[in-house]
Amino acid sequence: MQSLPEPCPADLIPNATGLDAFHTVYKAAKQQQAIFVAIEQGPQWMVKADTLTAPQRTIDITVHDAIRAAVSYLIRAREIRADSTAGPIYFELYDVGSEQRARELAAALHAALYTHLEPLRQAVKAA
Known about the structure:
The protein has helices spanning about 20-30, 60-75, 100-115, 120-125, and strands at about 35-40, 45-50, 85, 90-95. The chain has a 4-stranded antiparallel beta sheet. The protein is globular. The protein is an alpha+beta fold. The longest helix has 16 residues, at about 60-75. Helices cover about 40% and strands about 15% of the residues.
């Protein structure tokens, strides 16, 4: 699996639905020392990201605060479930309404974790 570009376009976000797919995507991110990001389908769509796969990366407070604010806004807008997590290491956005929106949010979160905050601002603005 090739590493994802920074920032990653939504259509390249991997679908890690199922245990085998999840392990494949997570293992690839870990081997590449890249931030893990994926979407999964259950009853609703889910966005997952994990910075443990990129130990050389640190998430500064500005980025973390921006992600927390975005997740809080999406919860208040009822676009994601209230028990979604906003880091500091692991991020999960539950009950996203569609695959397209999950990909958009995953790409925006991935970009933010690589310090590109504008896609996150645009994704939240779309809520």
